[in-house]
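>> Question from a student workshop board

For tomorrow's exercise we were told to take the sequence and the ligand below, predict the bound structure, and bring the output to class. My setup keeps failing. Could a helper post the expected result so I can at least see what it should look like? The ligand is nicotinamide-adenine-dinucleotide.
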Amino acid sequence: MKTRAAVAWQAGQPLTIEEVELQGPKAGEVLVEIKATGICHTDYYTLSGADPEGLFPAILGHEGAGVVVEVGAGVKSLQAGDHVIPLYTPECRQCKFCLSQKTNLCQAIRSTQGRGLMPDATSRFSLNGKPILHYMGTSTFSNYIVVPEIALAKIRSDAPFDKVCYIGCGVTTGLGAVLFTAKVEAGANVVVFGLGGIGLNVIQGAKMVGAGKIIGVDINPARQELARQFGMTHFINPNDVENVVDTIIQLTDGGADYSFECIGNTKVMRQALECCHKGWGQSIIIGVAEAGAEISTRPFQLVTGRVWKGSAFGGARGRTDVPKIVDWYMEGKINIDSLITHTLKLEDINEGFRLMKAGESIRSVVVF
Ligand code: NAD
Ligand code: DAO
Ligand code: ZN
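>> Workshop helper replied:
Here is what the output should look like for this input. Compare the format with yours to find the bug.
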């Protein structure tokens, strides 16, 4: 079949809208009509050429929601008409990683997904006979996609696609880092570095669990108002204080119980660790730093009890946790609508990237 898609031909170039050839689902695969997709910072990171594993030509996008059109042989858990969110972190429930219950990093299709291919090591997308690669196993900038069954979360059918698509990455990454990775407890003091599409969801998660002080740090003062609506109690603009770490230590009587780095800046990662409380403070790295970057601190920071952790997709097990997060949205327990600042047509997808780069949007959503 043919599908409309935004194709990334090479790093640094705008996407172009094409009628792409899409092969149907093979065994264990599912054809999905994508109804809406968010544009995430990570799509920009890959398109910019900064991602050393970025492959071209490819169809980017990893934050979508849609409807199952057809299932391949052997698919048991889904049928045509089911509403789904594609998962760039699948959940096979059989690999060593899934069975460990210690991580959400399912490895069942990792090697082919990392090469932009389906599990049989081929692409379902092509144009003029030449293959176009998948991206993060999802490629939600295409109106129709083929995805392995283990990379689809089935969600309730009354949830609006143009809002819950954001649960496919940003919402789950932020909330999950608080709930699943850090397991923040009520009353804990939390510091969030970077108040963008991820950081605001960390704030929302911290508020949800009843955190004490929720301190936001951002160089963009315009982020303050929305962050306060989501539960931030104190704001620090690093440009207005002499030393961010000292300011946080004073505000929290010795340091944060939990800090979250939601920028991808290795210098800020160090501040996020060093503002943590001696003896128990934990710092969670969410931001993706530039290729080859390294983090540093004095080892004594760790000897004296501070803990450095990372979080991918919020530590969420997609098929298990994503439907629950959709329920929370539908029950009014979390706010997504205020974070979706722009809704665009596929033809205007490059405008979505411009808005992100200019810091003018929190989330732009493309509706097909
Ligand atoms: P964003 O651009 O919307 O937000 C980043 C925020 O950081 C902005 O408000 C910006 O003003 C602020 N900022 C920039 N430099 C700063 C500094 N030096 N000090 C303080 N604030 C600063 O980005 P986002 O969509 O929220 O994504 C944040 C990061 O998370 C990116 O690196 C992205 O790739 C990564 N990410 C990680 C995962 C994961 O699973 N770990 C998932 C999605 C995104
Ligand atoms: O299992 O080795 C692996 C890789 C899992 C990829 C997890 C990606 C999370 C961070 C990238 C940001 C995604 C939007
Ligand atoms: Zn697995």
